[in-house]
Amino acid sequence: MLTRIDHIGIACFDLDKTVEFYRATYGFEVHHTEINEEQGVREAMLKINETSDGGASYLQLLEPTREDSAVGKWLAKNGEGVHHIAFGTADVDADAAGIRGKGVRVLYDEPRTGSMGSRITFLHPKDCHGVLTELVTSATEH
Ligand code: MC0
């Protein structure tokens, strides 16, 4: 069951400048940073609030580490902006299977490693009314 907005992924050209914008404008501080080589991103997670399922909601700022990554290609075509939304679940495997059964393309056969040790998969944007959609089970949930 999807129980929270886990994060909104925002593609940017310069992570440090974008982090500074969110700090100076809204007062949001960096909760976590990492490089995910498999996904080709350097990212900063800004925690916005805790959620009633024991998780949290974040803004995820994403800078590509290579031009041929998903975020690199998207930035070249669209410029900066909202890249994806992510729903949190205690069981990404079960939710991905259920959604696949409804005819939506799930991009990975098995969930991969996401931010902060989470397990993630993606739904094809063309099957989700133009929205690249991620499913996340956080490390504390698995
Ligand atoms: C591409 N499209 C999008 C989109 N990316 N539509 C909405 N939102 C996006 N973010 C559209 C394109 O405009 C195009 O439509 C069509 O999908 C095919 O795109 P493409 O440019 O030809 O690129 P593909 O097909 O090679 O790849 C698209 C696909 C890919 C969604 C399959 O980006 C992917 O595998 N994404 C999942 C992984 C990912 O995004 N990783 C980065 C975040 P038209 O109409 O022009 O044909 S990593 C992350 O977030 C992790 C670290 C975490 O949360 O923990």
What do these coordinates show?
By secondary structure, the chain is an alpha+beta fold. It has one domain (2-137): 2,3-Dihydroxybiphenyl 1,2-Dioxygenase, domain 1. 21% of the residues lie in helices and 40% in strands. The chain contains 3 helices and 8 strands, in the order βαβββαβαβββ. It has helices at 15-26, 70-78, 92-100; strands at 2-11, 30-36, 41-50, 56-64, 81-89, 112-113, 119-123, 133-137. Strand 6 (112-113) and strand 7 form a beta hairpin. The longest helix has 12 residues, at 15-26. The relative contact order is 0.22. (S)-Methylmalonyl-Coenzyme A is lined by residues 9, 36, 39, 41, 43, 60, 62, 70-71, 73-74, 83-84, 86, 107, 114-115, 118, 120, 122, 125-126, 130, 132, 134.
Spell out the key features of this protein.
alpha+beta, binds (S)-Methylmalonyl-Coenzyme A, 142 residues, globular
Number of spatially distinct domains:
1
- What is the overall silhouette? globular
**What is the count of DSSP helices, taking H or I runs of 4+ residues?**
3
Distance between the termini: 14 Å
CATH superfamily: 2,3-Dihydroxybiphenyl 1,2-Dioxygenase, domain 1
Succession of helices and strands:
EHEEEHEHEEE
Helix content: 10-25%
Mean pLDDT: 98
Strand % is 35-45%
Tell me the structural class: alpha+beta
The side-by-side strand order for the widest beta sheet comes to: 2-3-4-1-5-8-7-6
**CATH fold node name:** 2,3-Dihydroxybiphenyl 1,2-Dioxygenase, domain 1
The gyration radius over C-alpha positions equals: 15 Å
For the record, the CATH class is: Alpha Beta
Low-confidence region ranges: none
What can be said about the biggest beta sheet?
A: 8 strands, mixed
| Bound ligands | (S)-Methylmalonyl-Coenzyme A
The count of strands amounts to 8
CATH architecture: Roll
